[in-house]
Amino acid sequence: MSKTMKIIATSLLVYSLYVLISLFGYSFIKMNVQNKSILDEEIVSLDEFTSSEPNLTETVALHSTVEGALQLRLDLIRSAKEELYISQYSIGHDKSGLMFVNEIKEAAQRGVKVKLLVNRFSNSVSKNSYLSVLDEFENVEIKVVGGINLLQPWKMNNVIHDKLIIVDDEYLLSSGRNVNDRFQVPSTKEAVVNDLDIIVQNGKHEKSPKIINEGKAYYNELWAADYAKNKKKYPNSRWLTTSSDFSNEVSQTTKELKNDIGQPVLSNLDFYPMDRAFFSYNSTNEWVKKPIVWAQMTAFMNQGTGKFKLISPYVVLTNPMQDYIKANNNAQLEIYTNSMSNSPNVLAFSGYLFQKNKLLEKADIWELQAENSNHQKAFLMEEGIVGVGSMNSDSRSAFFSSENMLIVQSEGLAKELQSVITRYENQSLKVTGRTTYEENRSVMEKPVNLFKKILVNLLSVFSPFFRFLL
């Protein structure tokens, strides 16, 4: 081997070690530092929450089906008159992404001031992406978070994971739902993904709606973060140089989605009064976050006395996360999640599989046996308290992603979420062991592809080494 080749090989080896240490070592150390930095004043106690005087005029609704999910978003954007704030983990280059971006475009044409915050890894922001059609508008600002960073690899763990839409002072939507056909279009050829949207409405048009303002404050913190960078504009995008192409594609897609969109959803939702509510979110402007949402959820779990129903597509609890769950609490923890057969995230399921027996010592677990998977992130307490948002029950959501959860005490909302849980419990099996279930004549265990079964079990052996990044 020549001297030059040896230098190149050595340099690549050193750089590879640097990347591994940065991605794993730095992140692991910083995560443990942040784990100990949460202050008491950043967490609301259950007693403080339930004893506060009800003073909210805003109302709240839940949308829980793929049917109407895209139309709900079009309705919200269409209602904007002055300001539209959107944070979205993923806007697909597909039918739902096209219709979503087109509705933003039409809002901009009406003169609405638009701020759009997107994640770099999970969105196309190239010259010919749908987003480039918005580059012609002065009243549209787009910021991007994350992406490849060769000099500071640890920064690649930073992710915008929120799914927020805030319309003027009138509406706030928080969700776990991505703008992709599997999440938005029932007629997609792929297996659809079940998720939840929680919507706050300022029905009385108050000048300073409490919850919507809390959501705006959080959004503005994300927008002002050092890691949120302006998206490059492409004035020569083919969508702009041949504007008829975009219009024609929208027209064609509208025809193709005639059974999925067109009927209003927002105006037909059941809105319930809120006794109390607040907006919880992870720290901002930090590469590794304070796990405030997880700490808030588990604080309520520890302080409650009845059933605490946790719904998450992935359940991978690292030791730092488990430290927040007090061993002597009185909560009856119930977990609702995906099974090996329908989980789309092999890595996350491998981490869950490794620790499933330990989880069973703390909780009753139900796994969905269906072709479609669940992507819901929520909890329900017997006190009529509901939490819905973007937060998965895993380390990546706890420490590395921007996450939010709207926590509400509302009898009507709690009953509706319970009906959603019951619907999926009726398609689930209760877990008794790592790969075993309680017998249920009404629900059959869904078979697992052999390759997937081997892969998940193999990965689960090594999962303790990378579980904190799942």
Q: How would you characterize the overall build of this protein?
A:
The structure is a single chain. The longest helix is centred in the N-terminal third of the chain and has 33 residues, at 3-35. Helix content is 36%, strand content 21%. The protein folds into three domains: 1-36; 39-54 and 276-469, Endonuclease Chain A (Endonuclease, Chain A), CATH 3.30.870; 59-268, Endonuclease Chain A (Endonuclease, Chain A, 2-Layer Sandwich), CATH 3.30.870. β15 (332-338), α11 and β16 (363-368) form a beta-alpha-beta unit. It is of the alpha/beta class. The protein contains 14 helices and 23 strands. Strands 10-4-3-2-6-7-9-1-11 form a nine-stranded mixed sheet, sandwiched between helices. The protein has an eight-stranded mixed sheet with strand order 12-22-19-18-13-15-16-23, with helices on both faces. InterPro entries: PLD-like_dom (IPR025202), PLipase_D/transphosphatidylase (IPR001736). Residues 156-183 form the PLD phosphodiesterase domain. This is Phosphatidylserine/phosphatidylglycerophosphate/ cardiolipin synthase family protein. The chain crosses the membrane at residues 7-29. Pfam families: PLDc_2.
List the helices and strands and how they pair.
Elements: H1 3-35, H2 46-51, E1 59-63, H3 69-78, E2 83-88, H4 95-109, E3 113-119, E4 140-145, E5 159-160, E6 163-167, E7 171-175, H5 181-184, E8 193-194, E9 197-201, H6 210-224, E10 228-230, H7 238-241, H8 243-256, E11 272-273, E12 276-281, H9 292-303, E13 307-311, E14 315-316, H10 319-322, E15 332-338, H11 346-360, E16 363-368, E17 373-374, E18 378-381, E19 385-389, E20 393-394, H12 395-400, E21 401-402, E22 404-409, H13 411-425, E23 428-430, H14 450-466
Parallel strand pairs: 2-3, 3-4, 5-21, 8-17, 13-15, 14-20, 15-16
Antiparallel strand pairs: 1-9, 1-11, 2-6, 4-10, 6-7, 7-9, 12-22, 13-18, 16-23, 18-19, 19-22
